[in-house]
Write a structure and sequence with these properties.
Number of helices: 3
Oligomer: single chain
CATH class: Alpha Beta
Distance between the termini: 21 Å
Largest sheet: 2 strands, parallel
Shape: globular
CATH topology: Rossmann fold
Radius of gyration: 13 Å
Strand content: under 5%
CATH superfamily: P-loop containing nucleotide triphosphate hydrolases
Order of helices and strands: HHEHE
Number of strands: 2
Length: 87
């Protein structure tokens, strides 16, 4: 099952550039990526777009305790019907 991104949003600001750079780095064989940003900057949405572009299967995500509520809400919006596990 491929990852399906259900969102009414489109990448904004630097997100398109970040998505392109992450894709290029992953395609070059770099397995570990770091995406930095303040709370609410769109990191989850950016990564959801990267996963969609790579046609990866759904993933498992975990959040630091302080961000669990916000993280789960973001994933509910970003992941939609995809079979993802949040813990």
């Amino acid at each position: 099952m491929a990852f399906e991104l259900e969102s009414n949003y489109k990448p904004r600001g630097d997100q398109s550039q970040a998505i392109a750079k992450l894709l290029k780095s992953i395609e070059a064989g770099n397995r570990h990526q770091t995406l930095l940003g303040v709370t609410g900057s769109g990191k989850t949405f950016t990564m959801a777009n990267v996963i969609r572009e790579l046609s990866l299967p759904p993933s498992r995500c975990s959040e630091p305790k302080a961000n669990t509520r916000q993280g789960c809400r973001q994933r509910e919006l970003d992941l939609g019907a995809s079979d993802a596990t949040i813990f």
